[in-house]
Amino acid sequence: MTYVEVPINVCAQFELERLCIVAELVAATHQFVFNDKAVTVHLPGPEKPSVSFDIHNLRVISRRSADKVPLKYSVRTVTLEMALPEPIHVPDELLRLPPKQYKLVQPDENERLDQTVREAGEELRAAFAHWLAIVRWKSGIGYIGEPSISYGGDGQSAALCERATGHRLWTETVRIAVQLDRAVTEADWAATQSALVAGKTAPVWFDFLFDSEMRLNNKDLVGAVLSLAIALETNIRYIFFGELSKATVDPVIVEILDLTNVRALLSRLKKTERWTEEWASATDVSTFHRLMDLRNNVMHLAITNDVDAQELRKMHKAVTTFAYFTSDALGLS
Question: Is 34 in a helix, a strand, or coil?
Answer without folding.
Answer: strand
